[in-house]
Here is the input.
Amino acid sequence: MSQWKSEWTVTSGKEVMVKMGPWVHSEVGQNLLYKLAQQIDSGFNFEEVGHVLRGEVGQMTRGRNYMLIKDRELFYLVPTYERDTREYTISKFETLDQLPFRLQLEKMPKSNCIFDERHEYLGESAVQFPWTVRLWRPGDVFRPLGMNGSKKVSDFLNNLRLPRHRKERTYVVVQNDTIIWVLGHRIAESAKVGEGDNFAYLATLK
Here is the structure.
């Protein structure tokens, strides 16, 4: 067990990722995954772990405090969570503190911006409150930066190949009934820094 665990598992914070391999189809595969899950949360059921092992992508079972989720190339053991049904109204910068995560917007001259994949900037028109921040919903649509047409948020997230627990906890920013930002992933075309902007807002999400 210990050798299998060191070879096939990776821990990141409270998440444990189990890499798929030949062990999945072996006679002891279910037993290995179940024993690992039990070490983390004694509430997991042997039969249900087997269903996840042999199930489709997105298959899930719960223990007392953790969930086991099957993704495309990994199994995830992650803390359980409840779906956030709230909508957060952001009327000024100070109300960003009410969000269930940390979001910072740093205003700077556009000439100081470094436009690359590691930095995300919003244009001046995008940082006009009020905003509504909520989890994405089926049917949500936005126009991703760099695209000519609109795209369903669900399709956009599927294309990113996000595991279920991260996809389900993705928030969007709505301004004037239009999604301008899929938080942590892509701003909308309308939210980009414009040619006429003198300033931009560097966005940091934690």
Q: What stands out?
A: The first strand starts at residue 9 and ends at 12.
